[in-house]
Amino acid sequence: MIAQERLSEQFEAHRRHLLAAAYRMLGSLSEAEDAVQEGWLRLCRAETEAIENLGGWLTRVVSRVCLDMLRSRKSRREEPLDTHPAETYPLTEDRGWPDPEREALMAESVGFALLVVLDRLKPAERVTFVLHDIFGMPFAEIAQVAGKSEAAVRKLASRARRRVTGTAPRDSADLAGMRRLVDAFIAAARAGDFDALIAMLDPDVTLRDDTDGGERITRGAEALARRICGRALAAQTAVVDGVIGAVAAPLGRLAYALKFDIRGGKIAAVERIADPARLAALDLHVPFVQAPSRYSAISRR
């Protein structure tokens, strides 16, 4: 019993890191919890005396589980609220099983836009990108996870990086400035700050919206500001078809995309895309990926 309790405490020290990595690989909190739980079960069955680096061992095991889950996934679906057998998994007082509010907080912390783009990668690309570019795992260890050579996973990482971050928008000489404007626009829309929205819009701005299969056009700064004021709650900046834009993806599921035409420091035109066929065909990138932690800090534990 004492040995089991000690093993549980050691595992618990790594759980947040494991869940963070698994969630970025899977895009589903319930599936990420399942992958981490499987890591715990495999640890219980392992010869723990032979494990020199528990953090690194757990990261590799959970990553392999995530890769298998991605490969077996038939299609994206809404995740049900799962019932987990609490007696098989170490819990802490602040731990709760997946619920919509908790998943929304997790998705927001990771970035809705990043989840959308990651979901378009092939399984091995996604796992490699998350492990190397976000968590800093060496390619030699990723090769063990993916079952490929180190040279092969380097190519996977390079290909995934191009698909995630892309290149600078084709109409942008000042990507950082355009991003600040779009970030401010989204923040003002969420906050319902009508005056701030007006200040960022060209007086003759137009909004084209393909909602309901047709095209709705809104003309003028005041009309557009009234329409979006208090909205855009799930929107985040992204690059959409080579121009600065945004995506709205509650829980990482793409609902609509925005493309902005910026002239003279003002938003001159906005296109809102919600048609599923058009959304699926969009070229989406997130050139603003931030790493939550470094693998080296975990692997030394």
UniProtKB/TrEMBL annotation:
TM annotation in the entry: none
Organism: Thermobacillus composti (strain DSM 18247 / JCM 13945 / KWC4)
One GO MF term: sigma factor activity
InterPro entries xref list: ECF_Sigma-70_Domain, NTF2-like_dom_sf, RNA_pol_sigma-70_dom, RNA_pol_sigma70_r2, RNA_pol_sigma70_r4_t2, RNA_pol_sigma_r2, RNA_pol_sigma_r3/r4-like, WH-like_DNA-bd_sf
Annotated Pfam families: Sigma70_r2, Sigma70_r4_2
RNA polymerase sigma-70 region domain span: 11-75
Positions of the RNA polymerase sigma factor 70 region 4 type domain: 113-163
Organism ancestry: Bacteria, Bacillati, Bacillota, Bacilli, Bacillales
Assembly and oligomerization: Interacts transiently with the RNA polymerase catalytic core formed by RpoA, RpoB, RpoC and RpoZ (2 alpha, 1 beta, 1 beta' and 1 omega subunit) to form the RNA polymerase holoenzyme that can initiate transcription.
Residue segments, region Disordered: 76-97
Protein name, UniProt field: RNA polymerase sigma factor, sigma-70 family
Segments of skewed composition (Basic and acidic residues): 76-85
